[in-house]
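Supplementary material to the annual report.
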Amino acid sequence: MLLHSTKKDWLGNIRGDLLAGTVVALALIPEAIAFSIIAGVDPRVGLYASFCIAVVIAIVGGRPGMISAATAAMAVLMVTLVKEHGLEYLLAATLLTGVFQIIAGYLRLGALMSFVSRSVVTGFVNALAILIFMAQLPELTNVTWHVYAMTAAGLGIIYLFPLLPVVGKVIPSPLVCIVTLTLVAVLMGIDIRTVGDMGDLPDTLPIFLWPDVPLNLETLTIIFPYAISMAIVGLLESLMTATIVDDLTDTGSDKNRECKGQGIANIGAGLLGGMAGCAMIGQSVINVKSGGRGRLSTLWAGIFLLILVVFLSPVLKVIPMAALVAVMIMVSIGTFSWSSIINLRKHPLSTSLVMVVTVVVVIATHNLAFGVLAGVLLAALFFANKVSHFMYVASELDEAGTTRTYKVVGQVFFNSADKFAAHFDFREALDKVVIDLSRAHFWDISAVGALDKVVIKFRREGAEVEVLGLNDASATIVDRFGVHDKPEEIEKVLGAH
Amino acid sequence: MDTHRTTVLACIDGSTWKEAVVDYAAWVSRTVDAPLKLLHNIEHRENPPLSDLSGSLGLGTREELLQELTALEERRSKILLEQGKLMLEGSRQRAIAAGASDPVKVQRHGSLTESLIEMEDEIRVLVVGIRGEDHENRLNRIGDQLEGIIRAMHRPLLVVNRPFEKPPTRCMIAYDGSDGARKALDMVANSPLYKGMQCHLVHVSKSAESPLLDDAAAKLRGAGLEVVTASLQGDVERQLGEYQQQHQVELTVMGAFAHGRLRELLFGSVTNHLLANSTMPLLLLR
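Predicted assembly:
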C-alpha cells in the first residue's frame, strides 16, 4: 500500500502543482540553510535532506500536497549530538529515526494523535514559531547596523511586495527579498556575514554513503535517545501538519502510511548525507495557498530545489545572512497562531494553561516532544478532574431509624474515590446500611478499593451492609472497549441498569 | 423496510446520456417491479480555485486561507447542489412519464465510486451512462470512472450508450462456460427482466463446437425463455460485435473483468473493448 496512489494524486492538477512546487522550492532553500545552521552542520546537509525527504515523501507519504523537508523542530534536537559527536553520528541517528518511525507506522501509533488536544497542537505551533525566531537571534547580536537595516528592509519587501498589483501575486516575495538584498550587499560591497561563511554548499549531486560510525553498542547508546526524540517530534509535526492540510483542502489522508513514509524518507536522507526532517507546517500552507494539491507539487519542490542548489551554489554563497533571517522571521510569524493570544482570555483557564505549559516546556527543553507530553498529561488531568465532579451520593433513613440507604450516582474512579468515601457518615449508629450502586459506574480498581473500605468501616461499627447492583456498576472496569461501539453495548455498560 | 438489493439505481449527471439512463432505468424498474432511485453525485473538483504565488506567510495566514477556501467552495457547491436538484427533478418527471412508480431522488457528495460502494447493499441493478459529463465528446472511449465503478461493484450494471427507443426484444449472452458465465446464466434464468426476450446464447472459441452451449440453452429454456444458440470461431471481440449487428441484438449480457488488472494491461480486456465499441447497451454481471 505504500506505493499506492491514484492518477489524480499525481496528475490531477499538473499546472497548479508545478507552480506551487516552484514557489515551495524557492522557499525551502533559505529554510534548509537556516535549519542546517541551527543544527550546527554545513548547509549542504540540510539541502540534501530537503531534496531527498521531499522526493521520497511525495511517493510514499500518506498526505498528497503536504511538504516535508529539513525542519526547525528536528534541528533543535540534534544540536548537542552534532556538537559532541559530529556529523556521522547525526546521519546514523537519522537512519535510526527512520526505523523507529516505520515501526510506529506498522504499530498504528498514528491513532495516538487523538490524545493530543487542540490546545496542545496550538502550543506546539507557537513553541515552534518561537524556536525558529530564537534561532535567528545569534545572527542579530553583536553585528553592525547594516545587518539590522538589511533585515528590516527584507521584512518590508516580504510583506509589502505581495500588495503590488499583478506582480505581487506572481513572484514569491521571499525570493524578491533575497535577490534584492544580495544585489545590494554585493554591489555596495557591504561586509556582512553571508551563507558561504556558514559552511559548505552542495556543488554535486548527493551520493549514497553509509554513515562512517563504528557499528557497536556504544554508538547505539549515543544515538538512541536522539533518534527516539526525533522520531516522536517528526511524527507529531507531520501528523499535525497532515491534519491542517486535510482541513484546508477538505480531503482525507492516511496517517499510518504517513508515519511509515516519514520513516522511509528519513532513512533515504540519512543515506544521502542529509539530516532528519519531517513535515513543515509553514511550507505546506504556502503550497496549498499557491495552488498545490497533488503529490507532484512535493516531488517537483524537491527536484527543483536540487537543480537550483547544484547550479546556483556560487550564487547562494553570497546571499547575506540578513536576508535569510528576514525570511525565517516571516516563517516564524506565519507559523505562530496569533488568534491563540486573543483566545487566551476567551477559552477556559484549563485549556489556556495546557497551551501555555506546552510552550513553556518546549522553550525550556528545546524539545517539542517534552512539551507535547506535558501538555497531554495536563489536559488528561484536567479532564479527569472535570469528570470526577459527575458523582453524588444521596441517602435516606428508614422510618424505624435503624437502616440507611445510600444511593450512589455517577462516575467513581481514582480521582473521585476519596470523594466517594467521604459521603458516608460512619458515626451514625445503624443496624443496617444499604449501598445502592445501580446508577453508579466503577471505572477502576481504586473505586472498588474505596467501596471495600466503606463496607469494612460500617462492619466495624456493627452495621450489617448490603451492596446492591455491584456487578452492573463494575461492568465498566474493562480494558478493551472495542466491542462497546454499538448503541446496545453502550446501553449495557452505561445505561441505567 | 428491508432495502437489501431491492433498488434500481440510476446515476444522473449533466451528460447527454442522462435521459437515456433514466429511460432504461425506468424500463428495468417497471419490468422487474423494483423501486427506482435517482442518484446525483456532486463531485468536488480538486483543482484549486485560487492561486497566490506570493509565497509569504503573514499574521494568521492559515486561518485566512481556510476561510477563503471554504467561502469559494461553498459558493461552487451551492451552485452544483442547485443544478443537481433541477436535474434530479427533471429526471424524476421523465421516469414517472416512462412508467416508473414514485422514483426517489438522492444527492451525495464525493466521488461517484465511493457513493456507489456505500449504497451497494441496496442496489439490485445499477444504470450508468457510458461517459460522464467531463468526457462526453470522446467517442469510442469509455468514461474515466466507468471501469473503476464496474470493478468496485458486485451488482448487475447496465451501461447505457444510446437513446432508449423501445424495450429490448433480443438479447445476446456472451457465454464461455466459466464460473462467472454460469453465474450470469443463472441470473438471467431467474430474473423477470428477460421474460419475452429472444436470448442469443453465443460462444466464441478457437476450436470447433463444444457441448457447453446445449446445457446452458436447456437451462434458459427451462426458465421459459426463447433461446437461439450460436457457436462462433475467431477473435472474441470481433465475432461478438459482428453477431450483435447481424442479429440486431439490443442488449448484450456478459460477465465483466474476469481477470486482474495486470493481465488486462498486457493482453487487453474483452469487457473494455466491447464497452468502447458496442453501439447497444451492455448489462454486466459481476
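The domain at 389-494 of chain A is CATH 3.30.750.24 (Transcription Regulator spoIIAA).
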